[in-house]
Amino acid sequence: MKLVIQRVSSASVRVDGRVVGEIGRGFLVLFGAETGDVAGLAEEAARKVAGLRVFDDEAGKMNLALADVGGGVLVVSQFTLGADLSRGRRPGFERALRGADAEPLYEAFVGALRGQGVVVETGLFGASMQVALVNEGPATFLMELPKTP
How many domains are contained in the chain? Predict the structure, then answer.
């Protein structure tokens, strides 16, 4: 499981010209599921994201979590995070989990984040989306979870 976590002052996602998810301060999380990922990984990832201390405290040090700053999370499914770019010029998607298998993991991640008390907005799974964000910092983090939780 791969997540790209971007600290944002705002983020939104549109489908067919209409906003389907939008947050102010918080995280834009691009969520990619790979072959072998299980629901336990999604729950572990949600705990880690909710507790990630990357917002500045009064001394300017990354020391605060989402709850400390009243932040939300916009979660967007991102099939292409499972791409293999090691060969040639075209990405291979053998590792990326297909929609029918990836969607329950995506939903488990979103549900587990909400279970942590986080305000969560989402994109539309499997849709062609336009994502807009203002990256604060910029601060972007890659989280890769091993196949066994």
Answer: 1
